[in-house]
Design brief:
Shape: globular
Number of strands: 18
Number of domains: 3
Number of helices: 26
Helix content: 40-55%
Strand content: 5-15%
Structural class: alpha/beta
CATH class of the largest domain: Alpha Beta
Largest sheet: 6 strands, parallel
CATH architecture of the largest domain: 3-Layer(aba) Sandwich
């Protein structure tokens, strides 16, 4: 008799798990961003803040000890519980040690960062060459003085001897030769990086001694990729030597060329007033946001958006005008030359679209989240990519490829597209009201002017105020945001702690934008946040305690400012002698590793927040955090806590003051608010 099967009850389908959402207040210190995160969550739109809650980082990868450079891997070498006692026996399949793997990963990050900034520089050099050849009407030489200043560093003469008389060369001739020499720096077959000799002579000789002066920009990046291929360089010290060459090629090469050539083409920045945060967007205007890192097209968008006929066209579509805003370093580029306000930092880029008021977002290269396309689908926003190497796969993204020969036409097409889209807005516009005034546009030249006193043209007075103790030291605080930290919090806490202790801050990139959003980029901020010495200097000179020096390629301005401090005298003969420290409190990109390393090998003690992808290889970690100070005068350090982070920098600054014999010059006592109130009573 056949067995009778009983019917099996079907199990109820499991309920879909509720998506993990970010706590807006825990995610960011910025009220405008908090407001937009809440709005996005109500609308069912996920942002980077929610994704950071849902996806945790790989614990082994974050320590730098996972190798995936061949198909036998990935080889993961976790640290034993309790750390390593005795010999480290961890090996990958090929026998690569943790030190080799961590060093390979670290210098591949340097290669990635150096290639990003240096390719940016190459693009600018190509446009500069077109302008010098008179192949484009859109771009012309704007700053002849800057051209004449950089020409000798590229071996280009600015005078010529004729019939026994020294005469000035034709500017067009100089520009063309500068363009050709600059282009040659990426791939010349012999010689060395010309800008390396802009460093203090002592530092340059140090690089020569250790064999790390770059040959050309591209070769150092390519050689990293070769050395880190399976079975090539397997000595962490030798690997880092090549990483050092590539980092110098970035900071003193590709990035410095980008900054200088942009200044010649678009004008050298000088301090100007603007605003920052999402509140710069206007409901009754066409809002166009530019985002990325290269200013060659955004410069044309600024020019086109200011044309009377384009403003009239916007009015014909029902808008009162055109409001430009920026995100990331394209924002910083057009801020420092034109006063175009900055909308927000890297991490909150999606939130600019979530306002519902962004009619067009124009992106070029670097730090652009692909999820912008998904967010744009929920609104009317036109998302426009413009660079041949930076496209998106989503079908709602428009690509208008930049060509310097038709730059004005491309810019007009983009601005008109934003204007035409104004009428397509829904009723869901919500622009946060938060915005702050900022003073930006500082550079080597303007710091020289403002802090030169009666000695305009030198850094003498800045040095004098460091020696007498009114200014304790100098800090370069730069870098991105990281979704593994509270948005903008570490940036602001580090900077506030530094200026409270009389350390003047030079900033670039998203740190500069974060400081602007917090109201730290005004002279008035000094009286509220600074120690008495720095507050006095800022009041007398009329500058903010935090000087915004531009985009992340403009970190080269900080290197040159430090070089000017050395030249002015009284604070040693090398950058490593100066009471100076560097910081990237919320870093996330490979560019930050390249920047950090070129500061370290230029002699700057440099502290990173969040994490450093070296902790899984303690011997290698100690090499870059201790041995490098003996080699180059600078070293890496890591401290996630912002207050401790700042005090590591202050301790280093005090150490340098003591070595210079100026530590006893500081007679002032830091007073907190209670002390000041007691005095007033």
């Amino acid at each position: 008799m056949a067995e009778i099967k009983k019917p099996v009850a079907k199990a109820a389908a499991p309920k879909a798990a509720e998506p993990k959402l970010a706590d807006p207040i825990a995610a960011t210190i910025d009220p405008a961003s908090q407001e937009m995160i809440v709005r996005a969550q109500k609308m069912g739109i996920d942002t980077v803040f929610d994704r950071a809650v849902a996806m945790k980082p790989c614990n082994i990868g974050i320590q730098g000890i996972c190798c995936k450079n061949c198909a036998m891997g990935p080889c993961r070498l976790p640290l034993p519980k309790g750390g390593i006692e005795g010999e480290d026996t961890r090996k990958g399949l090929c026998g690569a040690t943790a030190n080799t793997i961590a060093a390979r990963n670290f210098i591949r990050m340097i290669a990635g960062g150096a290639s990003a900034h240096s390719d940016h520089g190459r693009c600018v050099a190509e446009v500069f060459l077109s302008a010098a050849r008179k192949e484009t009407e859109a771009y012309k030489i704007k700053d002849i003085n800057k051209l004449l200043q950089i020409a000798p560093h590229l071996g280009v003469a600015i005078t010529v001897e004729k019939d026994g008389e020294v005469m000035d060369r034709d500017v067009d001739e100089i520009a063309l030769e500068v363009a050709e020499k600059a282009m040659n720096e990426w791939g010349k077959p012999e010689g060395e990086l010309l800008f390396a000799k802009r460093a203090p002579a002592t530092l340059y000789e140090k690089w020569k001694k250790h064999g790390v002066v770059p040959r050309n920009i591209d070769r150092e990046i390519v050689e990293i990729m070769h050395r880190t291929h399976m079975g090539v360089d397997q000595d962490y010290k030798n690997l880092m030597k090549q990483g050092t060459r590539a980092a110098i090629a970035d900071g003193w090469g590709g990035s410095m060329l980008a900054t200088d050539l942009q200044d010649v083409l678009f004008g050298t920045p000088y301090p100007l007033q603007s605003e920052a945060n999402l509140g710069i967007m206007k409901e009754d205007h066409v809002n166009i946001i530019v985002h990325g890192h290269e200013p060659v097209l955004s410069e044309m968008i600024v020019a086109v958006a200011q044309k009377p006929e384009m403003i009239e066209y916007a009015k014909s579509k029902g808008a009162k005008g055109i409001q430009l805003g920026g995100i990331c370093c394209t924002a910083n580029e057009i801020l420092q030359r034109h006063g175009v306000p900055t909308a927000t930092t890297f991490l909150s880029q999606e939130l600019a679209i979530i306002t519902g008021a962004c009619d067009a977002m124009v992106v070029d290269i670097q730090c652009i989240m692909q999820n912008l396309a998904n967010v744009a689908k929920c609104f009317h926003t036109k998302l426009i990519t413009t660079h041949p190497i930076a496209k998106m796969e989503q079908d709602n993204v428009i690509h208008i490829e930049f060509d310097e020969h038709y730059a004005l036409e491309d810019a007009e097409k983009i601005v008109k597209m934003g204007i035409d889209n104004f009428a397509n807005r829904g009723a869901e516009v919500m622009i946060p009201h938060q915005k702050c005034t900022q003073i930006a546009g500082f550079g080597v030249e303007s710091i020289q002017y403002h802090l030169g006193g009666t000695f305009r043209g030198s850094y003498y007075t800045l040095n004098d105020n460091i020696i007498n103790g009114r200014i304790r030291g100098i800090a370069g605080v730069v870098g991105c945001n990281n979704a593994r930290t509270r948005h903008n919090e570490a940036h602001i806490q580090v900077v506030k702690e530094l200026i409270k202790n009389d350390v003047i801050v030079l900033t670039t990139g998203c740190n500069g934008i974060a400081c602007a959003m917090e109201g730290l980029l005004t002279p008035e901020a000094a009286a509220v946040h600074c120690g008495p010495g720095l507050a006095e200097v800022c009041e007398v000179v009329g500058i903010p305690p935090v000087l915004h020096m531009g985009s992340c390629v403009d970190n080269s301005r900080i290197l040159l400012a430090a070089t000017e401090v050395v030249k002015a005298g009284g604070l040693g003969k090398d950058i490593c002698d100066i009471p100076v420290a560097g910081s990237a409190p919320e870093w996330m990109s490979e560019k930050a590793i390249s920047i950090g390393h070129y500061f370290v090998v230029s002699g700057v003690y440099t502290v990173f927040g969040v994490t450093l992808p070296t902790s899984g290889a303690p011997v290698f970690h100690n090499h870059i955090c201790k041995d490098y100070e003996k080699l180059y005068g600078g070293m890496w350090d890591i401290e996630p806590d912002p207050i401790k982070h700042a005090h590591l920098m202050i301790a280093h600054i005090d150490k340098k003051r003591k070595e210079l014999g100026i530590d006893k010059a500081r007679e002032r006592v830091l007073m907190d608010m209670a002390d000041r109130q007691a005095l007033e009573g």
